[in-house]
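ESCALATION

Customer reports they have been waiting on this structure for their group meeting. Please prioritize. Original submission:
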Amino acid sequence: MKKVIVLGVNATSAKYVPRALRSAGFEPVFLADPEGFAGQAADSLRDCVCFATDIEDREAVLRLLADDPSITEEAFAITGLYDEKFPLIAEIAARHDLHGPEPAAVRLASKAVVAALLPEFSPPTLRFTGADAARLAVDPATLAPAPHGSIVKPAEQAGARGAARLPKGAGPVDLWNAVAATGLSQDATRPWVLQADIHGSLFSLEGYVTDGRTVFIDFSQRGRISWTEVSNLLPAGHRLPPGAEDLCKTAVTTLVERSGLTQGYFHCEFLVDGGRPYLIDANIGRVGGGAIVEQLALVHGLDPADILAHVLTLGLPAAGTSPAPAYRAQGSGTSTLSYYYGIEGGGKVLSVTAPSGGCCLHTQVVPDGGRVDPVGAGDSAWVGMLTGPTSEVAREIGGVVVHTADGPRRPAWVAPS
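Update from on-call: job pushed to the front of the queue and completed.
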C-alpha cells in the first residue's frame, strides 16, 4: 500500500483513521506519539507506524522529517484533520514531493483570509502581525461596531489557544499585553486577528464540497464554558432562528465560490446573534472535531471509518475519492449528544470511570497520569467525551468519575444553549 502521512488527529478520529485509510488503499503513518492518547485511540495508533513529535513545534516537525528520510520515502501524500496545520502540511508536501491538501483549503486555514473574502458574514475584523502589535500599531478602538468589546486570536489556530477578550475601550497597549500573555508572541510574523466579540449561540454547519458543488449534511449546536467547548447536539437545525439556516448556507456557498475551493469537507462555525449568523471559523478541509464523526455516524446509520475515508480522500485531490457516505436528509435521524467534559481547576488525571453496560461511546482524551488545563481555558481542558443518543448521554454522564491526584471529581459540562 502507498503511505499517507497523517499530521494532526484527535482522540476520537484516531480510533478510526487507520481503518479508514486502509479501506481506501493507503497505509497510515502518524506523526504522533501513541502514549499521548488513551484507550482505543492509543491501541489503534500502536497498530501503525508512528513517529513521536510535537506538532505544535513547526521546526521540530521539519527537523524530524529532514533527519529521517525513511518517513517520507515512498510516501504518496501528507494530510491531517487539523486545518490550522494545513500550511505546515503544504510546506512539507512541497519539500518532500508529496501530494497534499487543495491549495484553497490551505489558504482558508487563516481566519484573516476568510474574513477578507467574506466580510458580510464575518464579525468586524482587523488583521495584523505580532510585530504590528509590539509596535502598538493596532488600536482596538478602530474596530467598529464592537459594542461588547473584542476578541484577539491567532489567525491560524484552533481550540481557543491564544484567544483573549478585550473590553470595550481597550487600546494598543491592552492588545499587545493580551498577545504577549499568550506565549505565542515570539514570532513577529505570526498573523493575528482582532474581531468584534459576538454574543450568541454557537452553531456549526457540517458538509463537503465535491467538484465545486456544496453538499450540506447537518447543523450542530455547542455548549461552552468560557473558551472550552463542552457539548455538542446533532442535528440542531431546528434550534436556529427563522432565516438563519439559509444565511449560514449562503455564507458557505459564497466562501466556496470566492475561494475557488473544489473539494473537501467543512465544519463552519457561526455565532448567531439576534437571528444573524457570523462566521467565526471556516474549518475548511476537515470534518468537525470532538466526537462529531461518531455523532454523524449515529445520526445517519454509518460507520465512522467510512465517513473518515471520504473525508481524508476528498481532502487529497490526487488520491481518488472513496465512496460518498449515504447521509440521510438534513435534520432526520436520531438526536445525538456529546459531552466534551473537563474538570474545574484542571489537574492530574489518574484514570476515568465511565458507566459500564450503557449504549454510549466513551473516549478518554487525556491518558492516565496526564494533566489537563482548567475547564474554560480552551479545548486543551478536555478529559473525555461521552457520545450517544441524547436521552442516554444525559443519563449516563452522571456516572462518569474523573479520578485525580486530589481525589475523585465529577466532570464539568453544560448542555448546548
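Sent to customer with the following note: The domain at 201-314 is CATH 3.30.470.20 (D-amino Acid Aminotransferase; Chain A, domain 1).
Escalation resolved.
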